[in-house]
Amino acid sequence: MNMLQNQSELEEIAKRLDHAEKYRVLRAVPNRFSHMPEDGVPPDGRCIAILDTETSGLNFHEDKLIELAIMLVWVDDDGNVTGHMGPVSWLQDPGIELEPEITLITGLANHHLVSKQIDDAAAFGFLDRADLLVAQNAKFDLAWIEQRFPGLKGKAWACSCSEIDWLRLGYEGRSQQHLLAQHGWFTNAHRAEADVWSLFWLLQQRQRGPGDSPVQSHLQRLLEAAEKPTVLVEAVRAPYSAKDNLKARGYRWDAGRRIWCKEMAEEKLAAERSWFRAEGLPLFGAKTMTATERHR
Prior knowledge:
Structural class: alpha/beta
Strand order of the largest sheet: 4-3-2-5-6
Helix content: 25-40%
CATH architecture of the largest domain: 2-Layer Sandwich
CATH class of the largest domain: Alpha Beta
Number of domains: 2
Radius of gyration: 22 Å
Shape: globular
Number of helices: 10
Strand content: 15-25%
C-alpha cells in the first residue's frame, strides 16, 4: 500500500471491503473526546459513571487496586446521551511486586506505579455524583469500589456484560473486545482508561432489537434493564444430586451462602415452578432484586 495514501483514500478502500463477501473491516475506536455544553454546566438528566478497575489479582480481600478510570455520561429521559466527559484515571502503588501475568494483562509494570496514588476525594466525588455506576463486569468492580469507598455501598449498578441480552441481539460472545469486533471496531489498549472509553463507544452503537423492537443504543437497553426489577430464585434445600441439572439450567453456586441461585424476570417464575416440580425439587425461595441489590 502506498504510504502517501491519505485517510480518505484508506476509508474508501475500507468501504469497498465492507461490501465484499470475503472480507470484514475493523476500524480503530476513535480517540477520546469530551462533549459538554460551552458554559461547562453539566446537562440536565441522569448522570451515569462508566468505570473500570485494574488490580494485582482477583481476590479483593488480599490483592490490591492498581488503577481506576471513570467517565461521566449524561442522558435524557429516553437514554440518549446529552453530554460526556473523561475518562479520568489514576494509578495506585500497591506496595507489592506485581506478578508477570498481571503486567501482561494490564500493561502496568512495577515502575509505572512507584509512589502513585488514587485521588480518593476526586474519585469519590465522580462516583457519588452519578445516579448509576456501569461496568463491563459489575460484580468484580463493585467489590473493589465498595472496599475502597465504603460511602458508596448501596449505590445502583448496571453490568453491560450480563444485563444486555447480547445473544438475542445476534452476538455469541460477551467479552468487551469480542463485542467491539463484532460491531466493526477494535482497540489494542488494555488500560482502564482505554477500556472505559471503548465500553462507552460500544454502548453507543445502535441497532434494531429482536422481532419488531425499535432501533436503540446498547446504553438505552442497559438503562432499561437496570431499571427493571428482577427476581433472585434460590434453590433452597436442593439435594446435592440436583447440582448438574441446576447448573445446566443456568444456576450458579453461591459459595458464601452455599446455595444455587439464578436471577430472572418475574414473568418466568411460573415456568420455573413447573420445572422444579418436574425435577422433584423443593419449592424455591425468591426475592426481588433492583439495581441497588444486584451484582452484590
